[in-house]
Amino acid sequence: MLAADRTMAHNAAMPGALHVRWAAALAAVAAWATIVPWLAEAVGLGLDVPTRLEIADHVVPGVVTLVAVALLAVLGGRSASTVWLGVGSVTFLAGLWTTSTHVPLIFDAFEGATPWGAALLHFSAGPPILVLGLWVLLRSLRSAPGVR
After folding, report:
1. Helix or strand or coil: residue 111?
2. pLDDT digit string, tens, across residues 56-96
3. In sequence order, which residues have a C-beta less than 8 Å from that of residue 44 and are 6 or more positions away?
4. Largest pairwise CA distance in the chain
5. 60-75 vs 82-111: helix axis angle to the nearest 10?
């Protein structure tokens, strides 16, 4: 039995536990994305940007991801379902937004315009959502009937 076949067999045998782990991971990174601006401010790594930008770049994508996870918790289903496909897509886009809006901070840090700690802390919110969203999206596509 190939490793991929063993993984698919294992996932089919324990769909509930697998779905709970994915939903918990997505919820955790969404919560992280939402609180980063205020945590950064509390530890002295805040940025001098308007609150509306922090809300647009952290809170909105975090809340969108949390709503997607809540929908997943309510509707659940097999990983090949439309719900999982939608959650993966929405989460991937939320992560893409958060990541892309913080890339300039890294360049600012290289130029010395932004402290490295602040840049890395703010940037840390996007990639986990992006990667987990992509992973859920690809898993839901791969699990679809007729896809190998």
Report:
1. helix
2. 999 999 999 999 988 887 876 665 578 888 888 999 999 99
3. none
4. 56
5. 160
Q: What is the pTM of this model?
A: 0.80
d(CA 128, CA 34): 13
User: What is the residue extent of each domain of the chain?
Assistant: 3-142
Please report, as a single letter, which amino acid is at residue 106.
I
Residue with tokens 């700690």: 117
Is 126 within 8 Å of 98 (Cβ atoms)? yes
* Token pair 């089919």: residue: 12
Long-range contacts of 100-103 (CB under 8 A, 24+ apart): 100/126, 101/56, 101/57, 101/126, 102/57, 102/126
Q: Beta-carbon neighbour count of residue 38 at 10 Å?
A: 14
Residue with structure tokens 């790594």? 45
